[in-house]
Amino acid sequence: MFYELRTYTLKPGGSVAQYEANFGESLPNRLKYSKLGAFWHTEIGPLNQVIHVWPYETLNERTEARAASVKESDWPPKGRELILSQESELVIPAPFMRPLGEQQLGNIYEMRIYTIQTGSMPHMLEKWTEGMPHREKYSPLGACWYTDVGGLNKFYHIWPYKSFEERAQVRTEMFKDPNWPPKTEPGTIIRQENKILVPAAFSPMH
Question: Where are the alpha helices (DSSP H) in the chain?
């Protein structure tokens, strides 16, 4: 299995709400061909972004689903004029990640994006596999992927929280744990970014 992570940057001034409404209206016809994994918009970080995630078993499934869906009269959703840029990445789930599905996990999601030193992804995955049971004592993992096509050497992990207060409390407690963060070799992580995301009402993860 892999996931397609699509990030659209929209024009400022109400475009996110309009695009999200259009997407929700058109979604039932798109779901005839494959499932939606999640849909969020950014609240903190790069603003005016929507992020939608599509799971596929094979590249052929992706190709066939996309070819069939564009024959629908209302897909892609209305609002192309709202879009400034589009980005697509194919990402592989980490060994410890549970598949996306209908889950009520949180009101906000923190997406953390790490750029990993070339050749270090196997080491990163090994250390995170060892550390994840300790991290999930404090809050559940929403998703964890690494890129296969797109911006290479990127490692995504997503954490749901009920509120910003819960996020602060969890992060305070987890950093007291000697087993977290995972003890990777110096230089493994060369860049860190994050975004705070809010799920759409129609998102399977919310």
Answer: 15-30, 59-69, 121-135, 164-174
Task: Report which of 11, 29, 7 is spatially closest to residue 76, judged by C-alpha positions.
Answer: 29
Q: What distance in Å separates the CA atoms of residue 187 and residue 198, rounded to the nearest whole number?
A: 32
Q: Enumerate residues 6+ apart whose C-beta is below 8 A from 191.
A: 114, 115
C-alpha distances (whole Å) from 176 to each of 29, 126, 167, 173 are 48, 22, 15, 5
Average pLDDT over residues 129-147: 97
Rounded Cα gap, residues 22 and 38, in angstroms: 16
The pLDDT of 190-197, averaged and rounded, is 98
For 139, the domain range is: 2-199
CATH code, domain carrying 153: 3.30.70.100
Phi/psi for 141 (5° steps) reads -75, 135
The answer as to whether 14 is a domain residue is yes
The domain total for the chain is 1
- Look at residue 45 and tell me if it is in a domain: yes
Domain presence at residue 206: no
Lowest-confidence segment of 55-64, 94-103, 167-176 by average pLDDT: 94-103
Radius of gyration of the chain (CA): 17
Model confidence at 206: pLDDT above 90: no
